[in-house]
Structure formats: structure tokens, C-alpha cells
Amino acid sequence: IWLERDTGSVEVSGSSPLYSTMTSEFRRNSEPAFFCFIFNIVAMPTLFIFLGFRFFFWSNEHDPIHVHIAKGDSEAKYNVVTLELVANHGFKKNELKMIESIIEENKDIIIDRWNEYFKKGGIK
User: Fold this and answer.
1) Which residues pair with 3 in a beta bridge?
2) What predicted TM-score, i.e. pTM, was given to this entire model?
3) Which of 22, 34, 68, 79 suits a disulfide with 84, CB 3.0-4.6 Å?
């Protein structure tokens, strides 16, 4: 990802909060005119898409079992076992309730896919 100091432009487009954070941090820094951010490319296995909500996890995830949800410019993260909202960027309360009900109804599938992907014995 290349950011140009004078314009604050980002060559790689995206609406993720990561891009906003990087851009604002970049603008505050008064160092060189160009920065190059290098990220490891990480797969995002999609579990399923329902009502436009994409449920996925990153291929380098960590415990506890959690799921990321994206729709449009909004993103959220839930602990699957406890149904705890870990992070929310842009979803409205009614959307979060819908997401929670989808996770609750598909909890076993999500956990099975997590355990299968990360080769774990099984958590229920």
C-alpha cells in the first residue's frame, strides 16, 4: 500500500477502518514524502453469505473462536461461543441483532468449520 504525504492518497482502495487509521496516522507524521506499508497476504475463508452479510475468518486466526462479518462498508467481530460483540464499525443496532441471531442459529456450523480449518479437536 502506497500513501502519498502531500495528498494523503491511498493507492489500494478500501473502506475498511484499517485504511482510515493508516491514512490519519500517515497525515500526522511529518517524516518522508512516501511510505510503503507491506502486509502479509492472508486468506479470508468465507463461511457463508446470508442476507448480504458475509461471515468469515482470517486464515491466521487465534482463539477464542470468533467470526468476522462484513456488509458494504460495515464490519463486526463476534466471539461465537459467548455471542459477545468484540468490535463494530458501522453496523446499526438492528443489523447487529440480525447478525447475532444468524450466528446463534449457525453456531455449530461456524465452530465445526473453525475446528476443521485450524485442525482442532473440537469445541462445542
Assistant:
1) 10, 35
2) 0.64
3) 79
